[in-house]
Design a protein that fits this description.
The protein is of the alpha/beta class and about 400 residues long. The protein has eleven helices and 18 strands. The strands form three sheets. Strands 1, 4, 6, 7, 10, 11 and 18 form a seven-stranded mixed sheet that branches. The protein has a six-stranded parallel sheet with strand order 14-13-12-15-16-17, sandwiched between helices. A five-stranded antiparallel sheet has the order 5-2-3-8-9, with no helix packed on it. Strand 13, helix 6 and strand 14 form a beta-alpha-beta unit. Helix 4 runs parallel beside helix 5.
């Protein structure tokens, strides 16, 4: 069985130096450029299937209910790479990618009340307006600002007034997921950021912007893994390892980790995996092996790989009666999941999750506190720390599986 790379994954953290015109004895939020255009560096994708270009961009001041953020650290995710894939035809170019970042508020527009200049924040691709029927419901982490899109993962390419805050070489540049963290400065809606503690380590908590929250939340919020249960995790990228951490924190007694790269097993075991399986080394389908190992199947399976074959294996390896399968992502060009109704009638359930069921503005600050209190360790999820100008090298490392 071939497990495709996770559609949402992170590992490589970039530290972004402040732009030259803001280097001074004063912190950025005290500089005299608060209501002016800021010139800084950003990594622009001009077209599909091409390396990103480090360019000087102009970042306009925030408008009503918008916040301009100095990005201090950002992480790389497979969703960023998907936009560049030649088979992905719905992307807008040129665009500034990136959606796993953390930074400091530089300035705010009229009407912003949830943060102040100088405060630390994490931009969110999942907005939380706290007013719509979705935000007011305990059943979902969706928000009407996002649910209006047919495919929310590729939308939010401009601000609410349908214009961009980025300009390069006299041309507007699209936003990505409402965040665009591959820039020294970005502008986001005030519904798209979480205010966090001032002593938070931005080079670690940037991972909460997507990958960790997605995997960990899938186990805790969506699957609701129970103490003493058995779990199987398909795919050991950043999301898969985060799901593994979630299962461990939830008290699972047995966690079976599945990946086609056996080099990932040492880290998986260090994080709590009790068993590791490489489907390429087995004489029978991995789901059959898991069923035999567990006497009928696991209580919870989480697919963090994204391909239909892995999804099917994850569903098949759950026990009849109450087995729960949670799907976290979808691979580009995948044909979809085909199942027999009898599999569901036998008591299994399939869950889908986006951002791990986390309500960004409420959940992320709590996760930051949990990290500070050592409830989980984010250090294990960072494999490389590179300067911003090495961003294309980071993409290469990710594609090589060295993440």
């Amino acid at each position: 069985m071939l497990l495709s790379p996770p559609p949402i994954i992170f590992s490589i953290t970039f530290s972004l130096p402040p732009p030259p015109q803001l280097l001074s004895l004063f912190p950025p939020f005290l500089c005299p450029s608060l209501s002016q255009v800021i010139k800084c560096k950003a990594a622009i994708a001009w077209e599909a299937n091409k390396p990103l270009c480090i360019e000087e961009v102009e970042v306009a001041p925030p408008q009503a209910h918008e916040v301009r953020i100095q990005i201090i650290a950002t992480a790389l995710c497979h969703s960023d790479a998907h936009i560049l894939h030649p088979k992905f035809t719905e992307a807008f170019f040129p665009v500034i990618l990136g959606h796993e970042g953390a930074g400091i508020v530089e300035s705010v527009g009229p009407g912003v009340t949830n943060c102040k200049p100088g405060g630390k924040v994490i931009p969110l691709y999942m907005p939380q307006c706290k007013k719509c029927k979705f935000c007011l419901s305990p059943l979902t982490n969706f928000c009407a600002k996002l649910s209006q899109f047919k495919d929310p993962i590729i939308q939010q390419e401009v601000m609410e007034d349908k214009t961009s805050r980025f300009t390069c070489k006299g041309k507007p540049v699209y936003h990505f997921l409402g965040t665009s963290t591959f820039s020294q400065y970005t502008v986001v809606s005030d519904t798209n950021l979480a205010k966090i503690d001032d002593d938070a380590n931005l080079e670690r908590v940037c991972l909460l912007g997507c990958g960790f929250s997605t995997g960990y939340g899938a186990a805790i919020n969506t699957a609701k893994v129970t103490p003493g249960s058995t779990c199987a995790i398909f795919g050991l990228g950043g999301v898969g390892l985060s799901a593994l951490i979630g299962c461990k924190v939830a008290g699972a007694s047995r966690i079976i980790a599945v990946d086609i790269n056996s080099e990932k097993f040492a880290k998986a075991k260090a994080l709590g995996a009790t068993d590791c399986l490489n489907p390429r080394d087995l004489q029978k389908p991995v789901q059959e092996v898991i069923i035999e190992m567990t006497g009928g199947g696991v209580d919870f399976a989480l697919d963090c790989a994204g391909g239909s074959e892995a999804m099917k294996a994850a569903l098949d390896c759950t026990t009849v009666g109450w087995g729960s399968c949670t799907l976290i992502g979808v691979a580009i060009g995948d044909t979809g999941l085909t199942i027999s109704p009898i599999e569901i009638l036998m008591g299994r359930t399939i869950n889908g999750t986006l951002f791990g069921g986390c309500r960004g503005r409420d959940s992320i600050p709590k996760l930051v506190t949990d990290y500070k209190n050592k409830k989980f360790n984010l250090d294990a999820l960072v494999t490389h720390t590179l300067p911003f100008d090495k961003i294309n090298e980071a993409f290469d490392l990710m594609h090589q599986g060295k993440r």
